[in-house]
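User: Structure tokens for this complex, please. No commentary.
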Amino acid sequence: MTWRIALQLALSGLSVGSIYAIVALSLAIPFKASRVLNFAQGELVTLGAYIALVLSSYGLPYPVMVPATLVIAAGFGILIERLFIRPIVGAPEFTLVIATFAIGLIIRALIRIHWQDNVFFLPAPYSGPALAVGPLRVNPSYLVIIGSTAALVTLLVLFFQQTRLGKAMRAVAYNQTAARLMGISVGKVFGSAWALSAAIGAAAGLLLAPVAGINPELGHLIVKALVAAVIGGFGSLGGAVFGGLLLGVLETYAGALFGAALKEVIPFAILIAFLLVRPNGLWGATQVRV
Amino acid sequence: MFGARKLLSALATSLSFAMLAAIPAAAEQGVTADSITIGAFGPITGPAAYIGLAGRDGATMAIKEINAAGGINGRKLNMIFEDDGHSPAKALAAVKKLIDEDKVFMLFNVAGSNGTIGTIDYVKEKGLVMFVSFASAPGVTWPFAKNLFRGGTTEVPRYGELYAEYIVDGLKAQKIAILSGREEYPKNEGDALTKQLQKWYKITPVKRAEFNIGDKDFTPQLLDLQQADPQVIAFFGNPAEAAIALRQAKELGLNQQFFVGTTMVDQGFLTAAGPAAEGASGFALIPLLPGSSNPAMKAWRAKWSAEYPNLPANRPNIFDVLAYADMYVVAEAMRNAGKDLTTDRLIDALENLHDYRVGPIASPRSFAKTHHIGNLRLQPMQVKNGEWVQVLWESKRPSDILQRYH
Amino acid sequence: MRLAHAAIAIAAVFSVALPLFGSEYQIYLAELILINIVAAIGLNLLTGNCGQISLCHASLMAIGAYTTALLTTRLAVTYVLALPAGVVVTTLLGASLGYPARRLSGLYLALVTLGFLEVVSIAIEEFPDLTGGVRGLKLAKPELVGLLLKDNALYFFVLGMTALAICAGWNIQRSRYGRAFDAVRQSVIVAQALAIPPGRTKLLAFSIAAAFAGLAGGLFTAVVGFIDPTEFDISASLRDITFIVVGGLGSVAGSVVGAVVLTLLPETLRGAKEYGDVVYGVILLGALVLAPKGIVGSLAFLARRRDSKGGLT
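Assistant:
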């Protein structure tokens, strides 16, 4: 393996890892805000991507489309929470998990009926040919993903630490009853948590649209995102992002050294290893902490 | 002595009754004085829905036209369609329901390979004709079964023959690399090409790399291929992966010509891959793609849009056209079988079809008593200025696959 | 309670009499339902009773299915021996999940089982010469001591196996192991205080669930005759979980009801055509909202309320 190849693999690994990172971030949010494993989170990413697709087909300029997508997605999040999650909020944990699975299925099936399994790539203003760094090449879209993800993490950390709503979410995730006793409106917190999850998911969808392609199965990335979140530790937003990047690099090297089959196995081998040895991940902790 | 003879004759009689009972009933079920019921199945939910939905819609349009023109020997065609969700278990349920409850006369299969393989044994046992419009799984026509027919897609080894001949004789390449997905159809295409290159030309691919369906990055494989320095890279997978792989190939400086599998030779690939698709070549399952400006295709599209005004992007796709054409093949054979329509007479009529097609939008179909592979022709195409355009190249080598049917 | 007994009697008579009036399609559906019942009972013991979440139940079925299939097709072992062999192999592999279960719970355990599922899937695909890989594996009809198991013979065989599974599940639940499961689910600390070893109990629960799954998988090969890895993926595991959640966690009756309802549902939704998945999701959600404790759980709850009301005189 030459130096050029080794470095290119690292760069490509970080690139594909940035995809995992942003999806992992969107997965860590509902967990941080309500301690629920949201099986529909992948579909929230898909939903965001398709909202962007529809808006851009109306010719909206990019700087308008982005906030519009986030707002509409947040609206969907609130709607889903109100209609489907609120009625079963007291139910056993498994019921909630299956409910999110059902919601994901419905979203995916509806999208499929209308758009079929065509793949759409949504170019962004920053899309363009690969940048050259010596003999290495990197597509600028990935740099935007990494940059945006870093910015989002910073904003979210501030949100959870400094704002009232953010602190309320952490309280509800930590202990619902105590939070209620402290006067926090748990219903409103859940609604906001879903809105936030949907919005961050939509951001992920927007960032992915130029490079990963929009199709109904986009939500399948959630599986890799789960691995990333475990590596980083579920309570840590920055950790989830780091987990995604690390996963991308490890996967890419595995593919180069061992072939496609092992490339498929590596994420899960890492997952199992981490869960057995260090389940809280690199930065997670038993108590909620950023 | 006397008792033994009585016993023997009783035994013989009961044995013959048992044998008669064991013979699958010749399925004149599904045929009434004024209608013929066809059972169809394919995936209309799940990731493969674009195949089944197109199959259903194409076949339905054909049936509507045929009925409007008077039907078949005074009978109207009637189709019952069942979803198989691309799952073998559900496909078997669909087939059992169609045969046993809906009492169909024959099966029209638009299920792709996944839903087909699991049902073959059951259909063979039941004896009805199953006409498979798109499934490349070898099991449909090999080993030979009297009641199974293959329409649009040809046998997998044939893909290998055409691909190999085109790449070596048409594209004049000796150093070939293959990048294939780890799923049945792409794997079949890759294996068939490899085998045929060895058999006809004694060429071994300089590299064979694989990727996983759903992969978003192909750098390790592409760097590997780059090192091997091929002249042509054959890519077998789905449009989603093809789009990313082709884009990344250009980014990494691989400027080789790409040869893609049949799934990519359709509008969906062009939408997904954009400018990266330019120059790619491949074989189309039908002579004219739905986007073609050929007048026959334009006329067909107009009919289709009138029938289905609200359908999503990139429809009609190749499966719409294939199912439409194959339904006409079935109808033609039914017509030739005459008023007294039975399964045996339908089989006979199909086997006597030579170069039948409904129009320039379809490839000619021929069957024989020894084999039921309807189509041996694929149309080579290349992406020029963002459109798939026919390439003027004809295969000159005779196919080997028919040899094993003698 | 009498209602429950009547329901069981009716179901038993119906299932035995089905071949008399049912079409091949209906008998096939019944066989699929029976297989799902077996799988659901195993999962319910693990998840409903012992509280261990498992996302890999389908891959345990896969192990059972592939083991049975490989023994019959590649090694010409007769089905009546291959089926229990499949159960044994699955139980051993399923027991390996007991190790991570000792130290993890909830989400983290779920993720380990997810990892297990994916590894099994990849293993099946990676040895195509052995398992048929992504192309799948076709199987000949099995025989039971010379009798070819097809049509009605196969149906009664599957019915018999399911009845055995139901009895086994019922008895396990009522045994001291079943009580140990419940204790571990409620509180690991309290279980330890009661001298119930949580680690070993969880190991037992995973092994038992695997055994049921292995049986279901082996029956699947006989009924469908064709297996490929896509039949045993994460959606299949989630579907198994829906059986027990909608039917009722922690009860054998819940497993039966859930498997029956949710296996029939997609088939009855054939009329919804391409909207089948959407309608299925909506109905599933509706069931969860209206009966969050599951069908059997909610019925039991209502029955208790009615009983308690009647007692207030």
